[in-house]
Amino acid sequence: MYDEDQAAKPYISAIHLNLSKDDNATFKPQRFGGTVGINHLTEYLKAYENVGVNHMAINLRKSETPVSEAIAKIKEIVLPEFDTI
């Protein structure tokens, strides 16, 4: 049972993300994560935020988009949609 007297605590989750080369690909689940295009990644991560996840570890090891390109796209398109501390 959750103790309402405690301060809010961070909750973290992790995914194996295959950032699709198709920017408009909708999410397709795979073991421990899935494949999605950059244009649908924000809505996928917002769904996690809406249920209380406030930290997400993203593993890009098996991404079809090269890691450096995936990080640049996430930085430019996805991160601005989230509050930072």
Question: How do you describe this structure in short?
Answer:
By secondary structure, this protein is of the alpha/beta class. It contains 2 helices and 4 strands, in the order βββαβα.
Structure write-up:
The chain has helices at 38-50, 67-78; strands at residues 12-19, 28-30, 33-36, 55-59. It has 85 residues and is α/β, with parallel strands linked by helices. It has one domain (18-81). It has a 4-stranded mixed beta sheet, covered by helices on one side. α1 packs across α2 (67-78). The two termini are 28 Å apart. The relative contact order is 0.22. GO terms for molecular function: oxidoreductase activity, acting on paired donors, with incorporation or reduction of molecular oxygen. InterPro entries: Luciferase-like_sf.
Question: Termini distance?
Answer: 28 Å
Number of strands: 4
Q: Low-confidence parts lasting 5 or more residues at pLDDT below 50?
A: none
Count of separate structural domains:
1
| Form type | globular
Give the helix/strand class: alpha/beta
Question: What share of residues is helical?
Answer: 25-40%
Quaternary state, please? single chain
Tally of alpha and pi helices: 2
- Strand order of the main beta sheet, please? 2-3-1-4
GO molecular function: oxidoreductase activity, acting on paired donors, with incorporation or reduction of molecular oxygen
InterPro entries: Luciferase-like_sf (IPR036661)
